[in-house]
Amino acid sequence: RVLITGGLGQLGVGLAELLRQRFGQNNVILSDIRKPSYHVYHSGPFVFADILDLKNLREIVVNNNISWLVHYSAVLSAVGENNVAVAKDVNITGLHNILDIATEHGLRVFVPSTIGAFGPSSPRDLTPDLCVQRPQTIYGVSKVHAELMGEYYHHRYGLDFRCLRYPGIISADSQPGGGTTDYAVKIFHAAVKTGSFECNLCSGTQLPMMYIDDCLRATLEVLEAPADNLASRTYNIHAMSFTPQSLTQEIQKAVPHFKTTYDVDPVLQAIADSWPMALDDSAARRDWGWKHKYDLPELVKTMLSHITVSNRRAQDF
Ligand code: VAH
Asked: What is the pTM of this model?
């Protein structure tokens, strides 16, 4: 059975749905430190989990006969810069607990990394899997640490550790969790609701992005890949790169009057300027057949239709 930590964040509920279709509803357990909504609570097994409490984690793994663990609990880039102590606890101590429990019980463990694990001295265009990583956020530092610790536990204790560096993830049904790429989710809700959006990054800021369905499918594919196919523990995955300006222009094809204005947040802008503009994901495509399905036009069409439909449903109630 699979345990997902941080399951109530932007990605967890979607991943649970995908894995439950694949492995059966009762074989995927969502966990989080927060209270689930009525809908989530009744969509499948949920348990409270405090990743800082090793005893609590061990009980959950043993009592629920867990064999795979997807570790989504994390403090993201923007929130982390305002709460470094919390980010260290959750992203570093929490990660250590996950690796120790996984090793103790021979679990297969997936931990996401991020484009934020690169820094200004990393090659910024077509950033390779293996290159200099000197990120300048506690989030990025903690994710490089996670990559290194996962690789160490694999070589030292044989832990089946798997890791993907996610781009900014765009989703319609779930809110982002306080990252630098959150604008790229909020802009779609604004396009449907008000027809205008105030962006906190400057118009030419190019960042790698991915639609949530591609991200969750990649996660399932790498979890199911035969261990022998995985030449490394950590892989970049890439789908598209865009700027607030090119995203706005694509949205205007469907919402002609849509307008974006800019009120740049210097802290977020500095983080975004230190991140890659596009990732080289050739190793993932070679080793386990990774292939994205959503490009920018497809993303915009899908996001606008999802949000329009769910807003209409909400009005009908
Ligand atoms: C963030 N959405 O902005 C997250 C993600 C690639 C960005 O890690 O922090």
From this structure: 0.96
